Amino acid sequence: MLAVCMALVLLIVWTVWGNTALEINAHTIVSNRLPHSFSGFRIAQVSDLHNAQMGDGNEKLLAMLREAKPDLIVITGDLVDSRHTDLAVALAFARKTVEIAPCYYVTGNHEARISEYDDLKAGLEYAGVNVLENERIELERNGETIILIGVDDPSFQTDYWMGDSAAVMSGSLNGLTGSDAYTILLSHRPELFDTYATSGVDLVFSGHAHGGQFRLPFLGGVIAPNQGLFPEYDSGLYTQDDTNMLVSRGIGNSMIPIRFNNRPEIIVVELLTEENPQLP
Questions:
Q1: Could you tell me where the DSSP H helices lie in the chain?
Q2: Rg of the Cα trace of the chain?
Q3: 117-127 and 87-97 helices cross at what angle (nearest 10)?
Q4: Nearest to 239 by CA among 89, 54, 4, 29
Q5: Coil, helix or strand for 47?
Q6: 249 with 4: CB under 8 angstroms?
Q7: Which of 15, 24, 74, 271 is buried deepest, with most CB atoms within 10 A?
Q8: Could you give the angle at which helices 59-68 and 87-97 cross, rounded to 10 degrees?
Q9: Which are the contacts of 258, defined by CB distance < 8 A and separation ≥ 6?
Q10: How far is it, in rounded angstroms, from Cα 113 to Cα 159?
Q11: Residues 50-76: b if buried by 16+ CB within 10 A, e if exposed
C-alpha cells in the first residue's frame, strides 16, 4: 500500500512539474533555396499560450526567449483563451516580446471565438507586433529577401468542427504563394499540412495540437483537436515533398487543464544554406 501511495505522489509531482517546466527545443532547417544572407537566421516560435503565465509576468518565458537570441519571434495563434480571456496578460507579454526581436502573429481558433478580437489586434499592433491576416511580406537581409506569409485560422470563416477548413485555407493561400523566394508560412492548424505542401511553401510554423495533450512512450500524443485520437501531426518536424512543418506542443492548456509527459515548449529554428550548413 505504501508503495502505491508513493508511486501516486511521484506521478502527481511529475505531472505538476511537467505542466510548468518550460523547455526550448532547437531545430535546424537546411535548404539550398535559402539566400546566403539568411544562413544562421534564428526564429523562435511561441504557440498556444492560452493566457498562461510562465513566471511572474511571463518572465520565465521571456528570459528563455532572450537566451535564444532570435532574429525573429513568431506567435502562431491562441495567445488568449476564449474560456478565460485576459487581454491585459496577453498584451503585457507582447510588449516585452517586441523588445527582444521583431514579432509576427497569426490567429488561432480561440481568437475567432472571442468578442474582444478587434481590441486584441489593436493592442498587439500598438505594442509593435506585426499582425498578419492572410497576407505576405518580404523580410530583407543584406539585399536578399525571403517571404513570410501569415494566415487567419479557418474558423473565422467556417464552422470549427464541421466546416471545410482545407477549402478555406486553400482559398486564403491563393495568391499569397507561388513565389520563387524561400517562403515561410505561419498557420495555426497542423492537420492542414497537405494543403500547405500543395501550395509549395518551404517551411510552416504551426501549433494547435498541444502535443497530443497526453504523450505516451513510443506512441506520442493521445488526442488533438481536429485530429482525434493518436494524431498524425502533434509535435516536432514533419516533411512532405519539399515542405517542412514544425508543430509546437504549445505552452498553455485549454479545455483539458493538464498535460502529461508533455512539457510546454518554445521552438527555436536556425535556417542554414545547404552549401554551408555549419553543422557540427
A1: 2-18, 59-68, 87-97, 109-113, 117-127, 165-173, 193-199
A2: 18
A3: 20
A4: 29
A5: coil
A6: no
A7: 74
A8: 20
A9: 15, 19
A10: 11
A11: bbbbbeeebeebbebbeebebbbbbbb
CA 209 to chain centre: 10
| Separation of first and last alpha carbons in the chain | 50
Q: Give average pLDDT by consecutive 10-residue segment, the chain, 280 residues.
A: 72 75 96 96 98 94 97 98 95 97 98 97 98 97 97 97 95 92 98 97 98 93 96 97 97 92 97 70
DSSP, res 32: T
Distance of CA 193 to the CA centre of its chain: 14
CB neighbours of 108 closer than 8 A, spacing ≥ 6?
A: 48, 76, 77, 78, 79, 153, 188, 207, 208
**In 184-204, which positions are buried (b, 16+ CB within 10 angstroms) versus exposed (e)?**
bbbbbbbbbbebbbbbebbbb
Q: Quickly count: other Cβ atoms within 10 Å of residue 175's Cβ.
A: 9
Whole-number Å distance between alpha carbons of 139 and 42: 13
Letter for the amino acid at 64? M
Phi, psi of 267 (to 5 degrees): -100, 135
pTM for the whole structure: 0.95
CA-CA distance, 200 to 172, in Å (whole number)? 14
212-216, Cβ contacts within 8 angstroms, sequence gap of 24 or more = 212/262, 213/253, 213/256, 213/259, 213/260, 213/262, 214/259, 214/260, 214/261, 214/262, 215/259, 215/260, 215/261, 215/262, 216/261
C-alpha cell at position 184: 515561410
SS3 234: coil
